[in-house]
Amino acid sequence: MSHKIGILTSGGDAPGMNAAIRAVTRSALKRGMEVYGIIDGYKGLVEGKIIPLERGSVSDIMVRGGTILGSARLPEFKLEAVRQKAVEQLRSYGIDSLVVIGGDGSYRGALELTHMGINCIGIPGTIDNDIVGTDYTIGFDTALNTIVQAIDKLRDTSSSHHRCSVVEVMGNHCGDLALYSAISCGAEVVITPEMGYDEEEVLERLRYLEQIKKKRHSIVILAEKITDADMLAKKITSATGFSGRATVLGHIQRGGSPTPQDRVLATKMGDKAVELIDNGEGGKCVGIINNEIVGVDIEQALTSPKKSRKQLYEMFERLV
Ligand code: F6P
Catalytic site residue 128? Predict the structure, then answer.
């Protein structure tokens, strides 16, 4: 069956999105489909920014971070009238299926569009690793590598000056980037939304490490949106023997060439998304679960409980 399919990237960009765009485009062309790229996510879709993609359109993009299609956040996509415009734009091009690369907000839009007659398949593209229907999201590994490289550098200067570095990392309301980087760097403290935050406990641990264990430096990894990194660093200075310094890594974490792991993951997921469309499926999202690429109902992915990180966190605590 011949299809016209669209592809868009939505929400915060993530390294590896381009590898997914390439895989979707080439896999679809190989199956005899026509492929259209939608510029600037759902916003561009509503505005009719739609361009044909050929094999050559996606050459040499695998190594590049960001997304060649551009991305945007469009809260108004919750409104049916706005989504109706999107459906009309797709129909005017004869596009009957759409691949949406993004996070859970983008998945909600994809589910609604499926209910309105456009078969949508979601691909998890976000550095946050906060999507339930998959063990890993595209971009998480690259962002983690960026964070670990930064912390390795901070440790050098921190240990030379008897300091404690408070490093704020992204993740939205998910602590995976914080926890995985804390494990990778042998940090002294990790603060995540899942495990909660007790300022006095953090200061007590740092005092113990400095006074009893005679540590020359410490690293505190702080997931964003919990407390102010600079304020915590100042408290550390006044309440422990360390001099506190805050570093907010910010959007650096979203950029850079994707790691091979993200490139392979994105390629596998892109190919699987096209396979699902070819089978006439919609309202699904692609995931990697126990190292296997699977298609899961978006509804199920959005309503399932979050993966527990309790065991990983307890392991981190045992090894401090
Ligand atoms: O979802 C990705 C993410 O980078 C989050 O980690 C962060 O909270 C948010 O996006 C930042 O959004 P913006 O780029 O719109 O400031």
Answer: yes
